[in-house]
Amino acid sequence: MPANPAGWLMTVARRKAIDRLRSTAASDRRGRAWGELALAWDVGDGTRPIPDDRLRLMVTCCHPALALDAQAALTLRTLGGLSTPLVAKAFLVSETALAQRIVRAKRKIRQAGIAYRVPPPEELPDRLGAVLAVVYLIFNAGYVPPSGSRLVAVDLCDEALRLIGVLAGLMPDDPEPLSLAAMMHLQNARRHARVDDDGVPLTLEEQDRSQWVGAEVATGMALLARARAMGRPGPYGLKASISAVHVAALRPEVTAW
What we know:
- The chain is mostly helical.
- The chain has a domain at 1-47.
- Helix content is 64%, strand content 0%.
- It is globular and about 70 Å long.
- The model is unreliable at 38-47 (pLDDT under 50).
């Protein structure tokens, strides 16, 4: 294992790109590609508006020139740690349809000459919707795995929580990252109560609420309060508010339906 895995990967990728450029016949396109490569390297290795490596790559991959579903599908498959079957199930489509969607996205990137470029901070709002969808789907894939014997894929849930924490910190004045972070914490608080001693899944009404993690609930509620205070509710704000109603009930029968 290299001492700095991320740096090692970037160095190898850059050298491969340089080798490919050198082997290409001389043309105007070579000059443009060289400039794009230099720009991507300088922005990615110099001033870093997005401090997390994976999140920076996700924001870069979610290019607004692509359709929203294409942005999310391509990013999930390339960077999200999800296999093609998992991504297909996340979108409720067949594997064939998902593969075609990703191929079309890659073709558009190639034909339109979309450069690999880490966006500056002012471009983050244009990519926020796709990035939030990607993180949300990673968490969903962990919270309700579509295959296997585990009820929760803890590694995916934890990575999604880490990513949304970084994103909420980058955009503290936008209510939607805070709302998604709140909802994910409120859901994750119930992780240990979702199965009985034999591993059988339990419904929300059947769960032992004393097993819900109070610190996670408090974190989720605090994040939701911050988002609500901004007065600009969005889809994730609504979802988080519904989750908050359920975790606030000490018993199922007192849920504020």
